[in-house]
Records
---
Amino acid sequence: MSRFLNVLAVSAVVLSVASPVLAGPLGLGRAATPDEIAAWDIDVRPDGMGLPEGEGSVLDGEEIFAEKCAVCHGDFGEAVDRWPVLAGGQGTLEDMRPVKTIGSYWPYLSTVFDYVHRAMPFGEAQSLEADETYAIVAYLLYVNDLVDEDFVLSRANFTDQKLPNEENFFLDDRGADGGELESFTAPEICMQNCKADVKITARAAIIDVTPEDGEARKAREAKLATEEAGEQPEASEAETAPEPEVAQETALDPELVKAGEKVFKKCKACHQVGEGAKNRTGPELNGVIGRDMASIDGFKYSATLRTMAEDGTIWDEGNMAEFLRKPRDFVKKTKMSFVGLKKDEDIQAVTEYLKSFPE
Amino acid sequence: MTTELKGAKPSRRAFLKGAAAAGGTLAGAGVAAARAAGDPLITQVQPWTSELGDGVDAAPYGSPSQYEAHVKRRTVDWLTADPISSINFTPLHELDGIITPNGLCFERHHGGAAQIAPGDHRLMIHGLVDQPLVFTMEDLMRFPRENQVFFLECAANTGMEWRGSQLNGCQFTHGMIHNVMYTGVKLRHLLDEAGVKPSGKWLLAEGADASAMTRSIPMEKALDDCLVAWKMNGEALRPEQGYPVRLVVPGWEGNMWIKWLRRLEVGDQPWQQREETSKYTDLLENGKARRFTWEMDAKSVITNPSPQAPITHGSGPTVLTGVAWSGRGTIPQVDVTLDGGVNWHKARISGPSLDKAMHRFYFEFEWDGKPLLLQSRAHDSTGYVQPTKEALRKFRGSNSIYHNNGIQTWAVNSHGEAENVEIS
C-alpha cells in the first residue's frame, strides 16, 4: 500500500514539473518586422481598414478589365462558361435560380477590393497595383449600374459606396427560439408504424448527371426492363450499343488526341469545340486546322489577325504552333490573353485534338 | 524454371534436392487436378502461392493493392468552371471504420494545391497583439502537441441535393467529408505567445496559396479547440490538405480550416471576406441570407448499400453500414429504416465515439430480396435529431447550397441495385 502511494506521489511530482511548461509564453518565434507585416497585411474591411492609397476611374477600369478579367468574366461581367457572373441579377434572389453577383448579393464593396487584390487575375494573383484594383472595382460598380461612367473610386470615397443587398444579411439564427435547432430537437422519436404509406417522389436516375456511372446504369436498366417485359436481351443490347465512331479522314494518333484533350482545358474558358460549339470569348474551333484565318462569321477578330487573313492565309499546323507558343508575338495585339504553351508536346497534342473535330 | 536467389546460395546438394521435389510436384499436380472436385482456386496451387512476391523495397512508401485501384477520389466535371478551383469527393462507400486514409480525403482548392517547402514556410501573428511574431515550422514543433480526431465537412456537402435527388452515389452526395487524426499545437498557445490584447475579438486566418484564402474566426472559438496542425493520421499533411501546416476548426465548416496557413491577424471585428459574404452564406426563400453559419449540424449517410455499392449477394444476411457526425458533439444514437421511415431500428455504433468526429454504425439484417427504402437518422449529444429534407426545406427553401443535412434515401430494387431518391 505504501509503495503504491509512493508511486502516486512520484507521478504527482512529474506532473507538476511538466505542467508549468504549458503556462505562459515559451519565447518561441521571433518579432515580425513592420515591413514584413506590411507585405502580407493586405486585407480590407468594410470600415476601410486596410485600404491602400490610390484611385481608379471607371474608364481605366474598363480597359484593365477587358485585358485581365474579361477572358473569364466577359466584357461586362456577364461571365464566360461557368466562371462567375459579376453583374446583374438584381431582383432574382427569391427566384428558383438566383443570380448572385456583386450588385445583387454581395453585402460590402470592401470584399470586392480585397478579393480582386489578393486572388485575381486567376493564375496571376497579387499582380494588380492599388490604382488598377480601384479602377477594376469602379468598373464593377459601373456594370452593376451603381455609379456613372465618369466615376472615380479612391480611398477617400470608398466607404461611401454601399452595395444594395447589405441589409438582407442576418446572423445565424438556427439556435433562436422556435428556430431549427429547437424544432429538430424532439423529446420523443417515433420508431414503429410512423407513417401509413411511402411513395418515391424524386429519382436521381431521371436527371442522370452522375459521372462515369451513367452508361453502366443505362445498360443495367435496359437489361432489367427487358427482363421484366420478358423480351430477349439482344434487343436491349442493340438499343444501348454505342454509336460507331465517325471515321476520320486522316488517321489521328488516339493517345495524342487524348493528351490534347487535357491540354485543351486551358483553352476551354474561351473556346468551344465539338458538336454545337459556339463562339464565346474566343471563336469556336471546329475544323480550325485548314480553315481561313479570321473566317468565323460574327466573331470580332483583332485587327492584326484580320490583316493577316487578307491574303488568304489558312491555319496549318506550322502557324498554329507558332501562335500557340507565343500568341502575342505571332499576332500583335491579339485579343487572346493566353500566355502560350511552353512545351512542344502540348502544342502537338492540342493540335491533334483540334484535328479530331474536322467540321 | 528460373529462380532468382538472393542472399546465401544454397548448397548444390540442397539445390538438386529442391529441383527433384519441384518436378515431382508438377507431375503430381496434373493428376490431382484431374481428380479434384471443387473450386480450382482451392484445389490448384495458385501463382501467388507458388511464386515469390515483391521484396520489401518494391514500394518504399506503399500503395493500395492493384485490385483497389477503383477506390479513389472522383470529381464531377460540370460542378465548376475549372479543375484548379474545384472539388473532388471521398469514396465513402469503399471505406470502413472512422478514419479516412490520407490519399482519399476529398480536395477543395480555390487556387490549386500549393507546393511549399517547409523550410520556406512562415506563420505570422500580428494585429491586436502585444508582440507580432513570425514562426518557422521548426518553431511550431517546439510547442506542446495535441492529437485529436475530427471530421472536416465542406459546407456545400450534399448541396447539389437541395432541389431533389441528383447524383447517384454517396461519394458524390456526401463525399465532401473526411475524418482523420490531427497532430499539432493548440492555436491558443500561439496566440498566448503573441499576447492577444483585450480588444482582440476576431481572428483572420490566411493561406499562402494562390487564392490567399481568408476567413474570420471569433476569438472564443480560436481559444477553445482550434489547432494548428502539420500531421494527419501520423504522416505529414498531403499538399492538397495544406502542407506544411493548416488550421483545424473542429465541428465548423471546412472552408474555415485554412490550408497552407501563413497569417493570423487579430482584430476587433470580422473582415467580411469573400468566403463569408458571397460564398458560405445561406440564401433563404425570402431572398434574405443567413451568415456566419459555422457549425455543421448532425448528419448521417448509409454508405453500403448505396448506388455505387449495390447488394451483390442476393437475399440472406446483409450488413448495412454508414457514418454519422455532428459539429456540436458526439453521436449517441443512429436509427435506420428499411421501409422508408415506417419502422426504425437502432443501429449499432462500433469504434470510438469522439467529439466532432465521424461515428461508424452497422445494422445487420436478413434481406428477403424485396425492394427497400433505406434511410439513416443521426441523434447528437445535444438531443438534436437529423431532419428530413422536407423538414429542412421548410426553414431553408431550396436555394441554400450549404448545410444540407437532411435524411438521405436509397431505393434498393430486387436486384440489390440502389438509387438516390426522395420519398413522401
---
Amino acid sequence: MYDFNTVKELINLSKKHELSITELVIKREKELSEKSEVEIRNEMKKSLTVMRDAIEQGLTEDITSMSGLVGGDAKLVAAARDKGEEITGEVMSQAITRALAVSEVNAAMGKIVAVPTAGSCGILPGALLTIADDHDIKNNKIVDSLFVASGIGLVVAEQASVSGAAGGCQAECGTASGMAAAAITYLLGGDNEKVAAATAIALKNILGLVCDPVAGLVEVPCIKRNAMGTANALVAAEMALAGVESVIPVDEVIIAMREVGDALPKELRETSLGGLATTSTGCKIKEQLKTD
Amino acid sequence: MSNLSAFDTLGPVMVGPSSSHTAGAVRIGNLAREIVGQDFKKIKIYLHGSFKETYQGHGTDKALIGGLLGLSTESSQIKKSFQLAKQQKIDFEFIPTDLGEAHPNTVKLEIKDIDGDTNVITASSIGGGNIVVTEIDGVEVDLTGDYPTLITLHKDKPGVIAQISTVLNEYKLNIAEMKVVRQDKGALATAVIGLDQQLDTSILNKIRKKSEIKKVKRVNPIE
C-alpha cells in the first residue's frame, strides 16, 4: 500500500521505499485505478498540453468572459512587459501574465485543467511552467513535478478542503499556490523537506482568504487572485529552495486552514453574500447582469 | 485516504468557468441523455438556487444543452451548444424556479422523447463536477453515473427483487449498490441497481419478460 493522509506520511513512505514523491503518487494511482504507469503518465502529459494550450490561447486570442465583465488583462500585462515596463522582473511578469491568460480562458468557457478547481486554474500553470521554461526543463520532468503537485492537493483535499464553498478562497487559490510551490521546489531539485516547507509557506500566506465572487461568477476577483496566488507560489518556492523553513509544519498549517475555513461565515464562502460581492459596485453588476 | 484520484486535484480537464456550474451541468446533461435513452426534440429546463441566479454567467445553460447533446466536459463545442441544438431542431427553454429544499445547484429537466413520452429528471451538481440524479419520473433515486445501472419499475411484492438478482447472477454480474423505493405498499416499486459490469441487451430482455416487471431501463455510466 502506498497510501498517505498527510505530507509527513508521504515523506516517510518516500524514505521507507526509497522512492521519490512522484513515484509514490504514481504507485498510489496504479493501485487505485488499475491503470498502468504509462497510461497514468500519459494522462498527466495530456493535462500539461491543455495547460500550455490555455496559456497560448489566452495570450493570442481575444478573450471575453461569459458575462462580458472581464477579458484582455493578460495581454495588457504582456504588452507592458514588451515595452520594458515590468516592475517585478521578467520571470514574475511572465508568471503573472500566464496565470491571467489561463484564468481568462476559463472565464470564457475555454478548455483548462482544474487545479485544484476551475476558479484557481491559472496559478499552477502560471508559476510552474514559467519556471520550467526559464530553466529549459524538459516535459518529462515537468510531468514528474505535476504528480508532486497532485500529491499535495490530495492531502489538502483529505485533511481540509479544496472547495471555495467549504473553505473560502484559501481552499482554492491557497491550495493551488501550495501545489505550485511544491512542484517548483521539486522541479528545481529541492529535497522532500524543502517541498514540504514551500507548501507550508504558500498556504500560510493565503490563510483566511475569503471567497466572494461578484454576481457569483468565476471572474471578479478570481482572475486577479490567480495572479496573486502565482506570485505567492514563487515567493514560497524561492524561500524554501534557499533553505528557509516553515516554523509551523505543513500538516499543522493544513489543519489550521481547515479550522479557519470552518470559522469563516457562510457569507464569505462562495455565496456572494459578503466581501466584494456586496460592495455597491458588486451589487450594481449583479443587477445589471440580471436585467441583460 | 479516500478514493480520490491524483487527477481529482490536478484535473479534470474541462471547459470553464466552474466545475460545479459548468462541468457538473455537462455531466447532468450526459446522464439525462442516458436515462432518456432515445432521441428527443423538446426540453424544458427548470433551474433552482445558485443555478437559477448565475446560470448565464457560468454557461450552465450552454453546458446543460451540450451535455444533453452528448458533448464531454472538455469539448470546445459546448460554447456553441445552442446552435448545435437548433441545427438538430431541438427546442429548448430555460425556466428559473424554486424547487424547495433541493441542493443549491439543482435542475429539473422535462424531456419529451420521440415516442411522445415526457421524462422528468431532477439532478444536482454537488461539487467538483460530481452529480447526483435524485428523481426520475416522480420516483426518488440516487444515481451518480458511476456504474452501469439497471432501473426497474415492478410490482411491490415478495420475490421480485430475488427474480432480478437471479438473472443478474446467471450472467455473473456483481451488484455494486442497490436501492429499492416504493410509492405505495403493494403497488409499484422501483429498483436502482448499480453493477460492476456492462449490461447486455439480452439480460435486459430476460428481466423484461418477468410478469411482475413493468418497465426496465439501462443507464450507462458517464465519464
---
Amino acid sequence: MRIHFKTSYEHDIRLFPDRWTFSVYAALLALAFGLPWLIDEFYLGEVTNVLIWAIAGLGLMLLTGQTGQASLGHAAFLAVGCYANTILIELGLPFIVAFPLAGVLTGVIGTLIAIPVLRLHGIYLAIATIALSILADDIIVLLEPWTGGVSGKFPDMITIFGFEIERWSMPARFYYLVLVVTIICTLFYRNLLRSPLGRAFAAVRDSEVSATAMGVHIARTKGMAFGLSCMITGWAGALMGYYAGTFNNETFSLVISITLLMMIVIGGLGSIHGAFFGAVVVAFLPQALSIGKDMIGGGGVAIPGLETGVFGLILILFILFEPMGIYGRWLKIRTWFELFPFARKDMFKRQKSYLKTERLR
Amino acid sequence: MDVLQLLVSGLANGCVYGLIALGFVLIYKATEAVNFAQGDFMMLGAFVTLGLTNAEYMHLPFWVAAPLAIAIMAILGYLLDLFVLRHLFGQSQTAVVILTIALGFVIRFIAGAIWGHEPQTLESPLALGDLQMGGVVLGMADVAVIIVTVLLTIFLYQFFQRTKLGLAMQAASQNQMAAYYMGIPVKRVQGMIWGLAGAVAAVAGILFASKGAIDPNAGLLGIKAFAAAVIGGFGSLPGALAGGLIVGIIEPFAARYLEAGYSQIAPYVLLLAVLIFRPHGLFSQVRIKKV
C-alpha cells in the first residue's frame, strides 16, 4: 500500500501521484502505440471506435461528471463538430487547421446555446437538451445547401502536410490520429481539473450555494463548462464522421445522446477512467451479445431491440448497486488488495441524505 | 371549416399528450423525480390491453380488459417504486433521469419480445365509426379521447381535493419531512402515486391505441408529452393538460400552414422558447414554498 503525504499544494495537484503510477501510464501508452503490430485490422478498427467514444465521453463527462449538468443533447454537438470539420475542409482549409477549428466552433456554438439554457437546472436542462437533440436532426435537413440534407455527406481523405490518412485502407494511420487526439484531450481534461476552473466546476456540481459563497461565478463557470465540453465533443464528432465514412441527419440521433450519457454513468461519473471504461462497454456490447447468443444457441436469430434492452438493464443494475460505475468497482477491488487484511465492506458506503428539493431554489 | 377540423383533431391528439404529461407531473410533484419512461408506460398499457382483448391473444371483452389493464399498470407502477426507485432516495436527479430512461429501453424491449415489433391495432369499440357534425368529420375514438380526458381530469381534481389519500399525496409532495411527522406514510404514498401514474398511462395508452396502430416505439411520443408538460409548467396538473392541448393543436396547424421542414420542429421551438422566457411554464404558480 502506498501512502501519499501531501505536504504542499504542489503535491496535491501533481499530474501523477507517484512514480509507480507514472510508469503504469507510460507502459499503457507504449502498449497503445504498439497496438497495430499486436492485433489485426478488424480489432484495431474496434479499438479506434472505443477511443472515439472515449473522447466523446470525456466531453460529456466534463459537463455531467464535473459540473453536474446532465445533457441529453450532445449528439447535436457531435453533429456540429462533424459537419463543421467537413465543411471547413471543403472550403479549402487543410485538416490541421480545420480540425481544431471545428472543435472551437462547436465550443462557441455550445456556449451561445448555453447562455439561455444556463438558467435551467436538473430536469429542465435535460429536457431542453433533448429538444436540442431532436431539433438538430431537422435543422440539418433544413440547411441542405451546406449539410447535404437527407442524402448526407462524406468526409474527404485526411491530409496532414501531404501525409495521407484514411480509415479503410490505412487503419493503423487513422488509429494513430485518433490516439493522438485522445491523449491530447485526456491531458487537457486532467490539467483542467488541476486548474482553478476545474475546482470551480466541482464546486458548482456539489453545491451552487456554497460555490457562490466561495466567489465562484456560477453562470460563467457553467458557460465555460458547456463550451469546453462541446469543444471536445466536436472533435469526437469530426472523428466519428471519418470513422463512419458517411453521415446524414440520422447519424447523430437522440439515441446517441442517450447512449453517451449512459456510457459515462456505467463507466463512472466524474473520472477520466470512467469515460474509457464506458466506451469499452458501449463498443463491445454488440459483440459480447452476439457471442452470448451463439453460446446459448440462438445463433442467427436477430432479436430487435435486444442490444438497447440489455444495455438498459445493465444500467439499471449499475445505478442501483454501483452508482460509481465500473471505475467505482475497480477502486473497491484495488483498495481491497492494497489494504489486504484491513479492507471492510462498508468502507465505500454512501451516506444517506435527504431529498434536496429543486423547487426551493 | 378547415380550421375547425384541424382544431378538433389537434384537440384529440393533445388530450393524449396531456394524459401522458399528467403522469409526469403527478410523479414530479410527489417525488421530484421525472419518469422519462412515462411514454413507454403508455405504450405498455396499450399493449397489455391489446393482449387481453385482441382475438389472437386472450380475447376478453373490451370492458373487462380495459379496467384490468389499468389495474395491472397501477400495480406495476407501485412495484416499480417499491423495488427500484425507493433505493434511489437521496441520490442526484441525474441518477433518476438515467434510470428511468434505461427503464424505457427495457420496457420497449420486453413489449417487443412479447407482442412483436409490427404495428397492431386494438380491437376496441371506441375505434368504430365517424361522427359528422356540420362538415367536420370526427372519429368516434377522438370523441372518446376528449370525453375520457375531461372525466379523468375531473376525477383527479376531486381525488386530490376531497379524499384523504389525495390530500396525503399533496402533503407528501409539498414537504416530505413535515408529512412524515404528521403521520403520513410518505414512502407508501409515493408508491401509490407511481401506481396512479401507471393507471393514467394505461388510460392514455388505451385511448391512443384506439385512435390508430401501436408499436413498441410509440413510447417515444413521451418526448412530445415532455414538451407539453414543460410548456404547461411541470408542477401543475391543469398546466400539463393545457400544455398537451397546445402541443396537440400546434402540430396540425404547423403541418398545414408551414413548409414541410419547419412543421415538425414547431413544438420543440415552442418548448425552448418557453424554457428560456418562462422556465417554470406558462401555467405554473411561481411562488415560494410556504411549508
